[in-house]
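Tutorial, part two.
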Amino acid sequence: MFKLISFKFAIAAMLVILSLVILFHLLVLTEIIPYNIVWGGKFQSVHQMRSFEAFSVLVNAFMILVVAIKGQVLKLTISDKIINTLLWAFVVLFALNTIGNLLAKSIAETVVFTPLTFVSAILCFRIVMRDKN
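Running the prediction step on this input gives:
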């Protein structure tokens, strides 16, 4: 797999994906995109959606920061052990999210976000395994 997906490609792809995901969540927050197609269609109110979507934007921004540090796009001195632990958490998060998307009530969430979270899990795995190749 390491020969199929380069470390640099995995970093760039994750930064693009995460940026687009933030844009998507901002569009949901502003109700340009209907909120019933996210989070398994479980929101009961606009207030509830805003809380979850704001949290999503923050988590994705944090993920961008971690990926950018690992890829040395940002030159911050943070322990590689901490960054790798966070990346492993992202692998698990994306894998679990893939399962959740498969079970979503929204067809759009299942069709669009299942492959996206699956690819994200693979890319994060490739990034965290940089030192193993």
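The chain has a mean pLDDT of 89. In part three we will examine how such features are distributed along the chain.
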